[in-house]
Structures are given as C-alpha cells and as structure tokens.
C-alpha cells in the first residue's frame, strides 16, 4: 500500500486556512489548478511510497517508538510559496525545530525498517493546489501562465493562522484513483508529554 507519515492539523486550523484561501479561487488561472480537499490537508513528514503489507507491523512498531521519544509542540500555518510551477503550498511556523527533529526521527526508523523513503530535504508544507492533470487522466490541462502560481502564493504570503498543538503522529495511506487522492489514517500515536 501507498504510505506516508504525517501530522494532521486540527479542523479549526484547516477551517481558518480554507477561509483565507477562498479568495484565491477567483484569481486568474485558479480554474486550471487542482485544489486539494481541505478534509485531506496534512503535513507530510516522510513519503514512503508502496510498502508491502507484510512490512507494516514492524514499521508501526518503530513509528510508535519515535512518537514516544518526541514531545508535543506548538505550530501554526503561516505564509505560502510554490515549488516550481507545479505546487502551491502553505508553510508552518512555531516550534518547527521540534517538528524537524520528529521528521528526522521518522525518516531514520523508516530507513532502519528497510523502506526507501523520499530522499529530498524536509520542507514542511501543506499542498493547497497543483498544476497538471490528475492520475490516469489524459485530459490535457493548459499550463498556468508564468507567474499565476506566484501571484497566488503572494496573496497568502503574509497570512498567519492561530497556534495549535501537534500532538499525534499518523501513518497515512494514500489511494490514487481517477479523482483526487484519498488519504486515511492507518494508525496514530500520541507524541510525548513530559512532566515539568
Ligand atoms: P497526487 O499524487 O494525486 O497529486 P498526492 O501527491 O497528495 O496526490 P501522494 O502522491 O500519494 O498523493 O502523496 C501523499 C503525500 O506525500 C502528499 O503529501 C505528497 O505531497 C507527499 N509526497 C508524494 N510524493 C512525494 C515525494 N516523492 N517526496 C516527498 N513527498 C511526497
Ligand atoms: Mg503525489
């Protein structure tokens, strides 16, 4: 199954972003983007790709251990940008050092489990929209004019959402089909709360 590890912001934070992003849908080029579904908005810590079902129990055991070794931390959604001319994203602010350490811990155990995860650097983001066609669709999508994605990112650049607590680590499953990818939480573990 297609797996990734993520932190899922609370619905209140997603609602705030959904409200803040609504005006973007009226901008030039917006109709040529695939806007991600707010219900599925997440923060990917590691992308694992296809993992044989037989390897999942050992992976879960390791992820559970990582969750217990990293503390809850405060984050907020903040700012926006794009990856090339393909992805419009929203960034994260706050105790991102804790988030970064959690992601490193996750990537380490994923590797120890013998799973090849994405080797790109960790760029904490939430994907708001993508340019390009959906999986399996031949439909030719017109490319965005240069700068349209950047203008959308600029419109959200100064936006900052409310602070919330990242308190759980999720092993997520992604199912690709003809429509948008469907994400479901396979298993979740609480992050540590240490007594002061
Ligand atoms: P779609 O592929 O339909 O555009 P998606 O990218 O959200 O949707 P997946 O490809 O299953 O669905 O990816 C699941 C999550 O992992 C997403 O957050 C995605 O951005 C991230 N992801 C996918 N591929 C990689 C990769 N090679 N490196 C880093 N993150 C990735
Ligand atoms: Mg993808």
From TrEMBL:
Source superkingdom: Bacteria
What EC number(s) does its UniProt record assign?
Answer: 3.1.4.58
Q: Where is this motif: HXTX 2?
A: 125-128
Q: Which reaction does this chain catalyze?
A: a 3'-end 2',3'-cyclophospho-ribonucleotide-RNA + H2O = a 3'-end 2'-phospho-ribonucleotide-RNA + H(+)
InterPro entries per the UniProt record, alphabetical: Cyclic_Pdiesterase (IPR009097), Phosphoesterase_HXTX (IPR014051), RNA_CPDase (IPR004175)
Q: Where, by residue number, is the motif HXTX 1?
A: 42-45
Please list the residues that make up the active site: 42 (proton donor), 125 (proton acceptor)
Q: Which UniProt keywords apply?
A: Hydrolase
Q: Which residues form the Phosphoesterase HXTX domain?
A: 9-89
Pfam families on file? LigT_PEase
Q: Which family does it belong to?
A: Belongs to the 2H phosphoesterase superfamily. ThpR family.
Q: Its function?
A: Hydrolyzes RNA 2',3'-cyclic phosphodiester to an RNA 2'-phosphomonoester.
Q: What's the protein called, per UniProt?
A: RNA 2',3'-cyclic phosphodiesterase
